[in-house]
Amino acid sequence: MSETVPLWMYAVGFLLLLGPLVTVHELGHYLVGRWFNVKADAFSVGFGKEIAGFTDKRGTRWKLSVLPLGGYVQFAGDMNPASQPSEEWLALPEEERARTFPAQAMWKRALIVLAGPMTNFLVAILIFASFNMAYGKPVFPPVIDLVSEGSAAAEAGLRIGDRIVAFDGEKIEDFREVADKVGPHPGERVTLTVNRAGEQLQLPVEIGTAVEVDRFGNKYRIGQLGIGSNHGSVAPVNPLEAMTLAVTQTGETVDLMVTGLWQIITGRRSLQELGGPVKIAKFSGEQLSLGWVNFVQFAALVSINLAFINLLPIPALDGGHLAFYAAEAVRRKPLGPRSQEWAFRTGIAFVLALMLFVTINDVASLSLFGS
Q1: How far are the Cα atoms of 302, 303, 304 from residue 253, in angstroms, in the given order?
Q2: d(CA 280, CA 10)
Q3: What kind and span of H or E run contains 256?
């Protein structure tokens, strides 16, 4: 029987997760902008009507707004989605205009935009590094100690004692790497290179498909070979190794996201696997109910997700701005205002349509509707 989570915990988990992560994202934009001496008119924690705030000596209005679902930073002169100069901007005195966003060199504007997603990546890396320091690094030699009867591994001829040395040509050094590579690819054919009694063999394997159900009733379709290893240990790590490992873990998470997105685009995974704010609220409440360790780990994954989504080359997202700057660098002049305006309108329409789709998808997947 699935566990139930109090409704209030979904709301609290969602606010504690998304609010700080989006605010930190905007803080990344702000700090790099300040580094380049760009004036920020406002920095808001939340959206909508201001509840409380103050104006600092640099002229930035710091405020708490009524909808605590993120935040934003408003740079001087950056008054429209396409960041196009306005007539008001052109009328500013030269000294004041020099501190506005549109007046900055292209590479400075690009770094300010890039700083948001990079800050989210940094948050995830710091979380992973802290867990690596606290719990150490699990080490599992890639030696098979268990082969389930009737499994994909058994059908492929894998045996107890085989040492996996490569997965589709990629070197394997830890047993967990096999699980990481198998999980996202149910039903696909791969080649495992194994060392058996000193002889190196290449065995084609069709990865099995399994549907796992967690304690809350969430279902996950994953790849499975049907092998196991019992020779694991935990090795302590120093701070440098913890950070290095955290960067690797973050990269692996991004790789999984790219793989999952491509599988959805190519039809190998269902569109129903896309999640939106409702599903984030559901998962955040569930992870919060399991304790702060689980919740913080989940926050690291969501932080990476925010960074990844924002870097997609879609107008209205950070990646869309960066794509325009790249085009500007190649053309040696920016795209015309009309082209940028239409691109951003299209991008906003796409983002809103996607948000509507994933929200409907999320609501339809709730147990309330018999899913």
Answers
A1: 10, 11, 8
A2: 9
A3: helix 239-265
**Lowest mean per-residue pLDDT among 39-43, 117-121, 128-132:** 39-43
Instruction: Identify the residue whose tokens are 């969602």.
Output: 14
26 is catalytic: yes
List residues bridging with 139 in a β-sheet. Answer: 233
Higher pLDDT, 184 or 121: 121
What's the pTM value of the predicted model, to 2 decimals?
0.84
Confidence of residue 275 (pLDDT cuts 50, 70, 90): confident
pLDDT single digits (tens) 24-48: 999 999 999 999 999 999 999 888 8
Sequence-ordered strand ranges (E) for 126-188:
137-139, 146-147, 163-167, 170-171
Q: Which two tokens stand for residue 334?
A: 């920016």
Please identify which of the residues 3, 26, 96, 188 carries the catalytic annotation: 26
Angstrom distance (rounded) from CA 333 to CA 328 = 5
d(CA 92, CA 310): 31
If we measure between CA atoms, which residue out of 267, 253, 357, 313 comes closest to residue 113?
313
What would the two tokens of residue 325 be?
A: 């700057």
**Strand 233-235 relative to strand 137-139, pairing:** antiparallel
Terminal CA-to-CA distance of the chain, rounded, Å? Answer: 15
Please classify residue 275 by burial: count the beta carbons closer than 10 Å to its beta carbon, then call 0-12 exposed, 13-18 middle and 19+ buried.
middle
* Mean pLDDT score, 110-126: 96
Report the distance separating Cα 144 and Cα 61, nearest Å.
60
Show the tokens assigned to 119: 């800050």
CB 64 within 8 A of CB 54: no
Residue 184 in tokens = 């996202």
Provide the CB-side half-sphere exposure for 177 (13 A, CA): 18
Q: How many CB atoms lie within 10 A of CB 33?
A: 25
